[in-house]
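From the methods appendix. Each design record in this collection lists the tokenized structure first, followed by the designed amino acid sequence. Records were kept in a plain field format so they could be parsed without special tools. The example shown here is representative of the layout used throughout.

RECORD:
FOLD TOKENS (200 positions):
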């Protein structure tokens, strides 16, 4: 159930706080959930650990966008398929260890991947697309060149991305200014001034 909450909650949080920060938090939440389960003295604590994890597990399906934003267009399909395959392989490995390890040992073992993922993600550059979306174009260029280099093809993609975001930001500004002018015009109309005068 909490997976559905995470699925709905994480996309807007990623837009506000960035891909990297939210991805680190997601992995830390999963790690904390496994630690709670490993140390749990009773069933309600296990349920609490799984409930906490659900918030992040729901967002793992959304994280395919990271492969799209961080990787070369020609390799994005491979990384997305690899992510899906890795999930299945991880489940298979866990079931294999389950024959010889206790559930507490399994919980400790399962806590390692999200901890490593959080540490690894913390040293990534932020997503160039998100930086461009926020209007932080200098940081966007630095991040993009760190990830993709500065070859002709990469520079062309970078220029197109920044241009598209600049046009989008200009359109939003025009819409806001247009809405303000409409409100000012409405305040000058008789329909607004008559009741306003009566109130005064």
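DESIGN:
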């Amino acid at each position: 159930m909490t997976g559905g909450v995470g699925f709905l909650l994480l996309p807007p949080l990623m837009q506000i706080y960035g891909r990297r920060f939210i991805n680190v938090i997601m992995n830390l939440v999963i790690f904390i959930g496994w630690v709670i389960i490993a140390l749990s003295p009773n069933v309600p604590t296990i349920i609490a650990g799984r409930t906490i994890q659900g918030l992040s597990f729901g967002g793992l399906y959304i994280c395919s966008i990271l492969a799209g934003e961080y990787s070369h267009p020609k390799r994005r399909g491979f990384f997305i398929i690899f992510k899906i395959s890795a999930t299945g392989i991880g489940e298979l490995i866990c079931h294999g260890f389950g024959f010889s390890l206790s559930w507490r040992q399994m919980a400790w073992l399962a806590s390692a991947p999200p901890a490593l993922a959080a540490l690894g993600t913390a040293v990534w550059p932020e997503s160039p697309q998100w930086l461009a979306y926020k209007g932080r174009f200098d940081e966007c260029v630095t991040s993009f060149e760190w990830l993709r280099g500065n070859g002709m093809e990469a520079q062309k993609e970078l220029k197109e991305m920044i241009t598209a975001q600049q046009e989008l930001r200009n359109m939003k500004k025009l819409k806001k200014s247009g809405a303000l002018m409409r409100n000012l015009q409405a305040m000058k109309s008789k329909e607004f001034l008559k009741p306003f005068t009566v109130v005064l």
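APPENDIX NOTE: The two ends are 52 Å apart (CA to CA).
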